[in-house]
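Re-run requested by the PI after the first attempt was lost when the workstation crashed. Everything re-entered from the original request form. Ligand of interest: magnesium ion.
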Amino acid sequence: MTGRTIDRMATEKYGPSEDAIRAALATVNDPEIHRPITELGMVKSVGIAADGSVAVAVYLTVAGCPMRDRITSMVTEAVERVEGVTGVTVELDVMSDEQRRELAASLRGGQTEREVPFAKPGSLTRVYAVASGKGGVGKSSVTVNLAAAMAADGLKVGVVDADIYGHSVPRMLGADGRPTQVENMIMPPSANGVKVISIGMFTPGNAPVVWRGPMLHRALQQFLADVYWGDLDVLLLDLPPGTGDIAISVAQLVPNAEILVVTTPQQAAAEVAERAGSIAVQTHQKIVGVVENMSGLPCPHCDEMVDVFGTGGGRLVADGLSRTTGTTVPVLGSIPIDVRLREGGDEGKPVVLSDPDSPAGSALRAIAGKLGGRQRGLSGMSLGITPRNKF
Ligand SMILES: Nc1ncnc2c1ncn2[C@@H]1O[C@H](COP(=O)(O)OP(=O)(O)OP(=O)(O)O)[C@@H](O)[C@H]1O
Ligand SMILES: [Mg+2]
């Protein structure tokens, strides 16, 4: 008899059973969702060796999950209590986008909310939420220019002006049409090839909107669920500055939205931007990258750049967010100060179209190329083919 056979017999006789281990794991609740990790699809595998040692692999909902140590020790303690267990090792992995969507769908299960098409599993629309800590750093300018540049590249693009108090997107994009209603769907106007919806289209004149959290949430839900967007390649959400209610609503309504952080090169602005970005860790959203805006003014009389707002903010934010999230957050580009960009915004003609080769126009087009060119939805999705065995 070989040693291995003896071991197997010993396990069969004395070792812990997989059922007992899984029952122990069912007593471990995810610290944030407060449901057993077995129900949340977080147990990747359970391995039991002949000597009674147990290896458990656990999926975290996001990379750099702040709860990783806590989950490891809770799993270890629960499994150690099972009779016959001589040791426990815990290996951590991270859920794919698809697994996270399934988890979110199962958590939403039973509720009769209208569906947001972009949050559905299998949606091929990339959703970017443009965020910043401070106001006035250029979020809306970046949003409309990226949208217009992607549309000019042939992509189907939509923009939601989610800055309900300070809506400025329709003007910057030159969208002066009103939305029309068909049955219970709202048809968004479009301008410069971009479909756009904004609360500004529903209020008479320039009337300010005074709403509290729940109404903001409902407005955003309508924009996402009741507006007929058709098949979009990219949806951009222009968020209000800071880390308020709308950022949380976006995370709830479109959990797969990726955050694009805009900052100026200034140190103080960068620190605030980093805080705005790190909310993504709590809402389990991915940060696609950082855009540094107003980074230098090309001197009109020489070749030098004048660093009006200091330097290095974009890199500072990207490094800080990389540390917080445990992923690599890139600086996607730097946009210089350019009077043509401001004029384009005031006139409703984005600089990427009116002056595509200006320094700001080409910087924005390069960022749009990076974001628009990314494929979405293929990782973690079944291609309906079976790989051939390698061996
Ligand atoms: N790179 C730039 N060069 C010149 N002007 C710029 C640049 N970026 C933004 N601006 C101008 O700065 C002002 C603020 O920009 P914008 O409205 O896009 O910022 P925001 O972050 O959306 O502001 P808010 O927080 O109020 O929503 C606008 O007048 C805009 O035209
Ligand atoms: Mg804005």
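Saved to the shared folder this time. The CA atoms of residues 79 and 240 lie 46 Å apart.
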